[in-house]
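Could you join me in thinking about how sequence relates to backbone shape in a protein? Label the sequence line and the structure token line clearly, so we can match residues to local backbone shapes. Once you have written the record down, we can walk along the chain together.
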Amino acid sequence: MKHDIVILGLSITSSWGNGHATTYRSLVRELHNLGHRVLFLERDVPWYAGNRDLPETDFARIELYSGLEELRHRHGDAIREAELVMVGSYVPKGGDAGEYVLDTARGITAFYDIDTPVTLAKLRRGDCEYLRPELIPRYDLYLSFTGGPVLDHLEDDLGAPMARPLYCSVDPTLYFPGENMLPVYDLGYMGTYSDDRQPALNALLVDPARHWPEGRFIVAGSRFPETFAWPTNIERIEHLPPAGHRRFYNTQRFTLNITRREMIEWGYSPSVRLFEAAACGVPIISDYWEGIDTFFEIGKEILISRSSGETFEYLTGISETERLRIAANARKRILDSHTAAYRAMELENYIWQAREKRKPNMKSVNFSGGMNLNKKYVL
């Protein structure tokens, strides 16, 4: 059986401790809705094996593989014949897998970097095992979760033939305002623990909670140190699967977004949590990074906090009418430009561009017909 698209990604079966799974699920679902057949190849690793919340699905064929040899023997034909083969960031042994894909695939090849600033920092240190620098010029497309100046750097300095933004997205059929759901918490946060985000979390949520004992707060995320002393008015959830995300957001008056250090350095790096929360109609308080105003209008669609005092002012000083207005504005922005369906059409457009660019040197391939590579979408 031929597949239009083959994706080698970190995980689609488990959202435990990663943001990749929800991104792949929504994108693949919309590619399926556009008529594409998708094979998702995932390295079978124990930390996801024990935490699978989507072991199979009707919008893609999912196959687990144990290593490169199994990838070659079981899935070599699919990789060779696919119209698009996409390798994602953080795939175990992704450098070896990427080299095999580039040597084998006849169709368009792409690297999908869900962690672009982290990847670039790793490349500078020489320790990026999922993307070797010599492979970057060989991919037809470098798709990046980060836009802005990083795209020029990828092309001009690292040799990517085409670097394009393919930001995270949201499925509005899964994330929407709750009917008859009243907020229980004043402020919530969802995110896996990281050393570089913890100071901002302390300043923008933990400190306001300590100084406002009447307020109610909630933090969901794995890998936080067991020794951390949370204030008693902060409720903790260790892991929240995607099925619980909508309810999580809909129980909050405001939700907090905190950005990784590498993402702040490059800017233009929206988190999927931003889009999920906005689609749920929950106003967002966020730290600042360059380019955030290209996704949301500050003050009208999102609130920026740089201190515990600013967070406290938002929580106690904004009227309910204004709170709901900010939430409605952000939701409209997301539905206009940041849904998974929009991303799938963007990807089709990039494939068309890559094929046109590569056409004089295109390898012979019998396309299966699911992807309309002759159509350029105007987005």
Notes: The radius of gyration is 21 Å. The domain at 185-337 is CATH 3.40.50.2000 (Rossmann fold). Residues 340-358 form the longest helix (19 residues). The CA atoms of residues 10 and 91 lie 5 Å apart.
